[in-house]
C-alpha cells in the first residue's frame, strides 16, 4: 500500500457496557488517530445509559456518503452536501437550536427519520437563549419524507407548527395517528394547518377511521 495517496473511510461501531467506568472519550480517539493520515478525521462518541451502550462514528473528511445515521445532541455541525438521508436519535431531548443546526448542515436532505421519546424542555420558549431574539423558522427545502413514528408528541409540533418549521409542498409524513390528532387538536389547530395543507399524510392500516374534516386538513391522505 506504499502507493496509496488517499484513504476514505466511514466506521461505525457499538459497544455494550455494564457499570463500566473507564470509557473512551472523543478526545482519546482523536489522539489515537492523529498520526494515521494527513486527511482530517472526525470522530463522535455517544453513550446511552438507558440502552447500556456506546456508539462511535469515525470518518474521513470531507464526508461523501449519501446517508448519515444516528445523529445526536453531540453533533458539532458542518456542511454535508452529499447527504440525502439522515436519522436522529438520542436519550436526551432535541431542542429547536439542534434542528436548526441539522437543517443548516444538511441542506439537501430528502429523507429524515427521528427517534426520540424525551419531551422538549424549551418548547414554550419563543426566544433563543443565546441572542434573545425570536427563533428562526427552520426550512427543509428538499425534504420529501419525514418519519416521526418513534417520538414524543413535542416533535410532531416542532415540525408542523409553522412558527417553528416550514415544510415543502408534497412532502410525505408518517407518524403516530393518535399523537398527530392530539397535537393538531383533532385537526383544527391553526398553527399546524398551514404546513399540513401542503403535505401528504401517510397513515397505516391500524387507523380504523379518519375524521371527516381530515381530508381538508392535509394535501392528500395515503394509506400504506
Write a structural description:
With 224 residues, the protein is of the alpha/beta class. The protein has 2 domains: 7-61; 62-223. It has helices spanning 26-33, 96-105, 153-160, 177-183, 190-196, and strands at 10-16, 41-48, 53-60, 67-71, 85-89, 111-116, 138-139, 145-151, 165-166, 171-175, 199-203, 220-223. Helix 3 (153-160) packs across helix 4 (177-183). The chain is elongated and about 65 Å long. The mean pLDDT is 86.
Write the layout of secondary structure elements.
Elements: E1 10-16, H1 26-33, E2 41-48, E3 53-60, E4 67-71, E5 85-89, H2 96-105, E6 111-116, E7 138-139, E8 145-151, H3 153-160, E9 165-166, E10 171-175, H4 177-183, H5 190-196, E11 199-203, E12 220-223
Helix pairs in contact: 3-4
Name a few traits of the molecule.
single chain; 224 residues; alpha/beta; seven-stranded parallel β-sheet; three-stranded antiparallel β-sheet
Main sheet: strands, sense, barrel: 7 strands, parallel
Order of helices and strands: EHEEEEHEEEHEEHHEE
The proportion of residues forming helix, as a percent range, comes to 10-25%
Structural class: alpha/beta
| Order of the strands making up the biggest sheet | 4-5-6-8-10-11-12
Mean pLDDT: 86
Tertiary shape:
elongated
Amino acid at each position: 500500500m506504499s502507493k496509496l495517496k488517499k484513504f476514505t473511510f466511514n466506521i461505525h461501531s457499538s459497544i455494550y457496557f455494564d457499570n463500566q467506568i473507564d470509557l473512551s472519550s472523543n478526545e482519546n480517539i482523536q489522539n489515537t488517530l492523529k498520526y494515521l493520515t494527513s486527511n482530517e478525521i472526525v470522530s463522535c462518541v455517544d453513550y446511552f445509559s438507558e440502552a447500556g451502550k456506546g456508539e462511535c462514528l469515525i470518518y474521513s473528511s470531507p464526508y461523501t456518503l449519501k446517508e448519515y445515521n444516528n445523529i445526536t445532541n453531540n453533533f458539532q455541525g458542518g456542511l454535508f452536501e452529499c447527504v440525502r438521508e439522515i436519522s436522529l436519535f438520542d436519550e436526551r431531548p432535541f431542542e429547536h437550536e439542534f434542528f436548526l443546526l441539522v437543517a443548516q448542515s444538511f441542506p439537501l436532505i430528502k429523507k429524515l427519520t427521528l427517534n426520540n421519546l424525551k419531551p422538549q424542555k424549551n418548547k414554550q420558549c419563543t426566544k433563543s437563549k443565546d441572542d434573545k431574539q425570536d427563533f428562526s423558522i427552520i426550512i427543509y427545502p428538499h425534504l420529501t419524507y419525514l418519519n416521526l413514528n418513534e417520538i414524543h408528541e413535542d416533535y410532531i409540533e416542532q415540525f408542523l407548527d409553522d412558527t417553528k418549521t416550514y415544510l415543502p409542498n408534497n412532502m410525505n409524513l408518517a407518524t403516530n395517528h393518535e399523537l398527530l390528532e392530539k397535537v393538531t387538536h383533532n385537526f383544527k389547530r391553526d398553527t399546524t394547518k398551514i404546513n399540513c395543507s401542503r403535505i401528504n399524510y401517510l397513515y397505516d392500516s391500524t387507523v380504523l377511521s379518519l375524521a371527516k374534516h381530515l381530508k381538508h386538513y392535509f394535501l392528500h391522505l395515503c394509506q400504506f
